[in-house]
Amino acid sequence: MSIRIGKISYWHVHAWDYTKQAQEHKDTDIVAVWDEDPVRGKKAAEQLQVPFFENLDDMLALEDLDAVIVDAPTNRHREVMVAAAKAGKHIFTEKVVAPTLAETNEIVSEVEKQGVKLTVSLPRLNDGYTLAVQNVLKQGLLGRITYVRVRLSHGGAIAGWLPGHFYNLEQCGGGALIDLGCHPMYLTRLFLGEDITGVSACFSYVTGKEVEDNAVATLHTASEAIGVVEAGFVNSHSPFTIEVHGTEGTLLFGTPEEKLLLKTNLLEGSNSEWTEVPLHDHRESAFHQWVHHILNDTTADENIAMAVELSRLMEAANRSAAEGRIVKLDELKA
Question: Do 256 and 141 share a structural domain?
Answer without folding.
Answer: yes
